[in-house]
Amino acid sequence: MIQVIVITFTISSVYGGVSQCSMADVKSLLEGCDRLTGLNVTSVGGTMVNDHNCDVLLPKQVFIDEPLFQYALADSKKFYTIIMVDPDAPPQIEGEFFLHILKSNIPGLALRTKESSKTIGIDYRGYKPPTPPRGTGPHRYITLLYEQADGNNFLPSVPSSRSRFTLSNWLRGKSLCGPVAATQFRSQF
After folding, report:
1. Which residues form the signal peptide (predicted)?
2. Are 23 and 89 in contact (CB under 8 A)?
3. Considering the entire predicted model, what is its pTM?
4. Is 152 exposed, middle or buried (CB count within 10 Å of its CB: 0-12, 13-18, 19+)?
């Protein structure tokens, strides 16, 4: 059975001062790097994943510590939310992911900096490094950046569990636009 899962997506526009976001299905984000652009993810050791090497296979130790997230087009007057998920984590039920990070109220200026080793914001689900189980093959680690329509007043509900995180359900009713930028890397045991 094929399910269509809808989430907020890239295009936002303003009508009468109210931000409107269009919708797209999450499957388009899982089809490869064509839709995952604009975000740099840099490890503490200096390994960077971005548009030029999206989907690169890296040892899991590269991102053992929380990486620096950068978005050159971030608006310094806006705030953002970062979500990193693993769609390949067992039991691999369509639309469910393992949640590796949920960080909100990130100032746009913080996403533009190059001097920091960690992106500032509020950790609602702190960073959990890649831990693909033995024998499960390469896992994709997809990082999505959303713009917060309500400025720094965004107070997300914290998912009760990292596993079986349903991104589309969690996004429903939130004042988020995007993803405005994204990237992915792969890792295996």
Report:
1. 1-16
2. no
3. 0.87
4. middle
